[in-house]
Amino acid sequence: MSSGLFATAAAAQLTGGYIDNRIPYLTIDGIFADAPAVRAAALALPFSAGTAHYPGRVARYPAGDPSLMEFLQTLVGLVAREYLPRLPSPPDGKRLTRVRGVDTDFAIVDMHPSELDPVQSAPHTDAVPVFGLVYLNEEPRGGTLFFKPRMQSVAAPKRAAYPRADEQLEICGHIEGRFNRLAIYPGFILHSGEIAGDWIESDERFASPRLTQRIAFFF
Q1: Where are the beta strands (DSSP E) in the chain?
Q2: Which helix (H) or strand (E) is 10 found in, with range?
Q3: Cα-atom radius of gyration of the chain, to the nearest Å?
Q4: For residue 18, what are the contacts with CB-CB under 8 A and spacing of at least 6?
Q5: Which one of 40, 46, 157, 164 is most buried, counting C-beta atoms within 10 A?
Q6: C-alpha to C-alpha distance for 39 and 30, rounded to whole angstroms
Q7: Taking the model in full, what pTM does it have?
Q8: Which helix (H) or strand (E) holds 11?
Q9: Which of 144, 146, 143 lies closest to 189 in space, CA to CA?
């Protein structure tokens, strides 16, 4: 167990499941020894606009923190040991055997559904084949949804809303967004944050935002 803000908890529980009954994901419940402190420190960071189609804001923790570096090194070992041997090759056929780098930031989703552009209203794939997410919300703020095209779909106009099942896409996997849960999943499967409820259409999205720590694994 590391020491400092990003210390991991000795009692953290490793479990997992499958997306579409075939693609594995991992979850670790109780990952941080002091998750409220991590949330408070993250929310105190200077957030700014994310990438062009991210529906919220992002912030980076100051570089060089020893406990954050140790945390990321622990996750690299976990992915290499527990996840890669079970993960099928991504669509490009490249077999993932070694993590060559890792990066992390914090992200807040706070955009009203009516403000979303068409890309934000659709699920996406990530630029990396393996992605990690720590859910840092004690209030219900949703987890992660995975999608696949319906066998027989009907074209329908896209509405300004966060991604959900519709005439063209069905949900084929779900990771519950429990507080202090780390999820590790394939970035090459269509997915989206599970953003629903009254909070995203009220001032709650600012007063008590949906906060996650994002971890990208490079190969």
Answers
A1: 13-19, 23-29, 48-49, 56-59, 101-109, 130-135, 144-149, 169-175, 181-186, 191-193, 210-218
A2: none
A3: 17
A4: 24, 25, 173
A5: 164
A6: 13
A7: 0.95
A8: none
A9: 146
> Residue holding tokens 């694994």?
217
Domains and CATH numbers, the chain: 13-218 (2.60.120)
Q: How far is CA 12 from the centre of its chain?
A: 18
Tens-digit pLDDT string for the chain (219 aa): 456 999 999 999 999 999 999 999 999 999 999 999 999 999 999 999 988 899 999 999 999 999 999 999 999 999 999 999 999 999 988 889 999 999 999 999 999 999 999 999 999 999 999 999 999 999 999 999 999 999 876 666 567 899 999 989 999 999 999 999 999 999 999 999 999 999 999 999 999 999 999 999 999
Give the residue carrying structure tokens 């594995």: 24
DSSP 109-175: E---GGG--TTTTS-B--SSSEEEEEE--SS----EEEEEE-SS-------SS-----SSEEEEEEE
Which tokens in the block code for residue 157? 């106009």
Following DSSP, what letter does each residue of 27-48 receive, concatenated?
A: EEET-BTTHHHHHHHHHTS--E
